[in-house]
Amino acid sequence: MAGERESSVPPAHRDSDNGFWKTALSLGEPADRSHEGAQCGVRPLDWLIDIFGEDLGFWLGYLGNGKHLAWYASFRFTILAAIFGALIGLGFGLGGAGLLRARFRPLRIAGLAYANIVRGVPDVLFFLFFPLAFEQLVEWLISTQVCSPEAVAARAGSWPPCMEANWFLSTTEYLILASVSLGIVYGAFTANVINGAMNAVPKGQLEAARAYGFSRNQVFWRFQVRQMWIYALPGLSNVWMLLIKSTSLLSLLQIPDIVLWAERLGAPNFVPTAGLVHPDWRWRYYLVLFVFYIILTFLSERGFAWLRERVGRGVVAEG
Amino acid sequence: MAAVVEIKDVYKRFGSLEVLCGVSFAAQAGEVISLIGSSGSGKSTLLRCINMLEVPDEGSVLLDGEEIRMKTGRRGREPADEKQLRRIRSKLGMVFQSFNLWAHMTILQNVMEAPLRVEKRDVDEVRDEAIAMLEKVGIADKAHAYPAQLSGGQQQRAAIARALCINPALMLFDEPTSALDPELEGEVLRVIKDLAEEGRTMLLVTHDMDFAKEVSDRVIFLHQGMIEENGTVADVFGKARSERLQQFLAAAGHSQQGHPIPTITNSNRESGL
User: Fold this and answer.
1) CB contact (8 A) between residue A208 and residue B104
2) Signed CA dihedral, B46, B48, B52, B53: sign only
3) What domains, with CATH codes, occur in chain A?
4) Could you report the per-residue pLDDT of A72-100, keeping only the tens digit for each?
5) CA dihedral defined by B135, B136, B139, B143, rounded to 10 degrees?
6) Does A50 touch chain B (CB under 8 A)?
7) 0.95 cut: is pTM over it?
8) Closest chain A residue to B84 measured between Cα atoms?
């Protein structure tokens, strides 16, 4: 027990009084630099150490190492998935609302089927289902075009049976498929929100527009759709929040996202030469993600409040 | 000269409910006609049939002698020619009970919207005219406010300015003061009275017998979807022939001598703003 406790201290602190933080700081620099005196001023971070002491130096070095930089960079996947997922979702939502409101009955039924089936399926399941099903479909379609039975027969026993039809998905493709999945799932919610908002536009105002000779298109776009946003925004902000939360599922699709990195970095780290570098720190990394998502939520709330004020000017009560 | 509006033998049903059962009448240029009758007598429906917000099941509507062409589509009878209907509608200024100002536009934008987007008129010319109309109804200072920021009386006056700005050949008022508090009615009635005195052709659906008496040239009394009486104010109010009209007037608390609507002085017009 005592040994574990001792070994849980980062090596910097166990190491000789003076040296380890300098090594930590000089990552990527030639090792002999550490022998040069501080007065030479070669290491740009020395002044920080002078101010804050050695602990801070260690932590800067630790949090600035390559794997942590990769973690920070992986935030881009989350943000890209949220943005493109939302845009695609808005597209699906507008399309779905169009279907729900169609005069032609089969279209209406298609809209209802989309909205209800997709809303009913757990998003994790759909997230796993859609990209893989889509990939298989594409591979099958290609295989029907390019793979002759002879070629398949020639490769009998080896996998894949037809190399030409094999579609390799890199992180980029997975990210695109993840965005589309998010778009489809949250498009179903969006369709419902937009459909309800279209119904919420006061009928009298549309009637007035017709009475003054506006065409069907003008009544639809200039009055109904324009005012629809006012009623849709509260619902859309909810959908956006749910979508943001779902971006934490990206690692299910092999995308090295923030959750995956947090798990990797936080997992108990045992190096044969140094012993246990740190115990299970995942909760600390997940805590950082909590804070990230809370900040994102806060910023989104502000953004939606701003949008609502702009779109709802004159309609939404001020103050 | 053709009547500004002529309605011939109009029938309208909502499901099994007969709302209009063969109504015919005509309004000449400059006439102010009040449509009165108890709730459910079909007077609002009749007004809405003129600009096809309600499509009559039978009968025809003519404006300046031009009949609105009808056809029978899959979903029943409907106007046959969208372009003709829009052209005719753009000459009918309608004022609704619940104002129906477009909530996302300022008052000035509301007034300018139809002349700009339906008639495609020049924006500077329309703006001048719109401001003149707002001055006329006494709310020029509210031009850049939104409808929700105005009182009911101000909103209804803005709606009247919107109707005026399309240079209507005929104005349709659908119970313009029914949604207003009594103290706000006066300012709207005053504006309507001014318009009547200008010689505009107007159809007015109202519950306010005293006002109908004061502004109208002619009064039409509807009962159960039929025109029961159609005559001058003196005829209809003075010597009501039908028993139903007598009952209706008695129930409406109509006094034979009548009393003038309160005149709006500048001071109480200010206080209403």
Assistant:
1) no
2) negative
3) 4-63 (no CATH), 75-253 (1.10.3720.10)
4) 999 999 999 999 999 999 999 999 999 99
5) -50
6) no
7) no
8) A213
